[in-house]
């Protein structure tokens, strides 16, 4: 049985990846320090013989006994609210955490895939963003703690690949949404859904003309899965190219939820990217991958998921 270590396992993406690799017949070690994650996302895996959980901070030395075939490094705060609250820990998990996991991969001769982000393109001047674009990031701006940590993650991963011949993969993930997100993690999909559920007005930051392109979780997981088993070591974008303005998106959520909330406008956070859309030519050509779930289908699934939670479960999702 192939053995895989997944860091950030109790988080949104990490928990869905645990599910996928369990389904594919892997032995999965989930690792997390629970700083933004929630054990509830993976407790259903605890009774399984091919799953174990390590409560561990990956910025400290990481040890796993026995053989290890693959590592997915997904530990990191991912929402602007989270990483602005814990800026130093964000820098550490992208830098020291990545270094520790690359070291482990080298020791075990394991293939490692690291979770990078569309944020490496910053507030992009090239649109849509292809992998050749170097980005427009302020290293000293508030979002720099996340963006630069991920840029360092990419650099050190390529260095281990080129210098040590390590088998590495880098996925640049564009805004992904799905079940298990925390309703108040500040990201726009759970924020708008939570507001609709509570009967509150939807908060659009700035004038809402900034754009994003939202990818449904199952499509994202499929892209990551294919990348891990490809032989492509350069960074690759995985996301849904269907772009929308945030104002249109708020209107879409109001139509979907059938509620009659208004849109209210709040100040735009500093360095909030004005446009974002992945160029997925490489993913199409190299991985034979493209997203299958439309935004309206995906949003409906996620809204139904949040609606199906009990009041206690909903309250927990708002911690
Ligand atoms: P999340 O906050 O739900 O999950 C992150 C998990 O990492 C949490 O469970 C958290 O407790 C854990 N973690 C953080 N620091 C840790 C540490 N030092 N040691 C051990 N565990 C630690 O976020 P997510 O949306 O699931 O994001 C997962 C990964 O994907 C992140 O690396 C993020 O940068 C990347 N990513 C996500 C998106 C997205 O749209 N969801 C977009 C781009 C990149
Ligand atoms: N946003 C918003 N209202 C909210 C939360 C976010 O208008 O309540 C905006 C935010 O300013 C950004 C976009 O939605 O322009 C996406 O934000 P998110 O935090 O989800 O992702 P990121 O900015 O990291 O792409």
From TrEMBL:
A GO-annotated cellular component: cytoplasm
GO biological process terms on file: D-xylose metabolic process; UDP-D-xylose biosynthetic process
Pathway the protein contributes to: Nucleotide-sugar biosynthesis; UDP-alpha-D-xylose biosynthesis; UDP-alpha-D-xylose from UDP-alpha-D-glucuronate: step 1/1
Pfam families to which the protein is assigned, alphabetical: GDP_Man_Dehyd
Cofactor: NAD(+)
Cellular localisation: Golgi apparatus, Golgi stack membrane
EC number: 4.1.1.35
Gene3D superfamilies: NAD(P)-binding Rossmann-like Domain
UniProtKB keywords: Decarboxylase, Glycoprotein, Golgi apparatus, Lyase, Membrane, NAD, Signal-anchor, Transmembrane, Transmembrane helix
A single MF term (Gene Ontology): NAD+ binding
Membrane topology reported for the UniProt record: Single-pass type II membrane protein
Domain of life: Bacteria
InterPro entries noted in UniProt: NAD(P)-bd_dom, NAD(P)-bd_dom_sf, UXS-like
Main location: Golgi
Family per similarity comment: Belongs to the NAD(P)-dependent epimerase/dehydratase family. UDP-glucuronic acid decarboxylase subfamily.
Protein name: UDP-glucuronate decarboxylase
Upper taxonomic lineage: Bacteria, Pseudomonadati, Bacteroidota, Flavobacteriia, Flavobacteriales
């Amino acid at each position: 049985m192939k053995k895989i270590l997944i860091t950030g396992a109790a988080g949104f993406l990490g928990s869905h990846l645990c599910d996928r690799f369990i389904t594919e017949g892997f032995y999965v070690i989930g690792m997390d320090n629970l700083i933004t994650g929630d054990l509830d996302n993976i407790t259903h895996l605890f009774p399984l013989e091919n799953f174990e959980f390590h409560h561990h901070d990956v910025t400290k030395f990481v040890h796993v006994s026995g053989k290890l075939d693959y590592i997915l490094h997904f530990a990191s705060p991912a929402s602007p609210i989270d990483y602005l609250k814990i800026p130093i820990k964000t820098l550490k998990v992208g830098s020291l955490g990545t270094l520790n996991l690359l070291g482990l991969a080298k020791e075990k001769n394991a293939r490692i895939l690291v979770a990078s982000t569309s944020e490496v393109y910053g507030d992009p001047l090239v649109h849509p963003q292809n992998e050749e674009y170097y980005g427009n990031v302020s290293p000293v701006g508030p979002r720099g703690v996340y963006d630069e940590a991920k840029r360092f993650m990419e650099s050190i991963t390529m260095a281990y690949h080129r210098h040590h011949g390590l088998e590495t993969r880098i996925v640049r993930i564009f805004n992904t949404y799905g079940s298990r997100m925390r309703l108040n993690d500040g990201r726009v999909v759970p924020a708008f859904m939570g507001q609709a559920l509570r009967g509150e007005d939807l908060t659009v930051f700035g004038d809402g003309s900034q754009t994003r392109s939202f990818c449904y979780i199952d499509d994202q997981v499929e892209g990551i899965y294919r990348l891990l088993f490809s032989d492509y070591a350069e960074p690759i974008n995985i996301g849904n190219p269907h772009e929308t303005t945030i104002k249109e998106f708020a209107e879409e959520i109001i139509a979907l939820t059938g509620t009659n909330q208004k849109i209210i406008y709040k100040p735009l956070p500093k360095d909030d990217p004005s446009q974002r859309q992945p160029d997925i030519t490489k993913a199409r050509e190299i991985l034979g991958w493209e997203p299958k779930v439309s935004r309206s289908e995906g949003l409906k699934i996620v809204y139904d998921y949040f609606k199906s939670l009990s009041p206690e479960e909903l309250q927990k999702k708002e911690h």
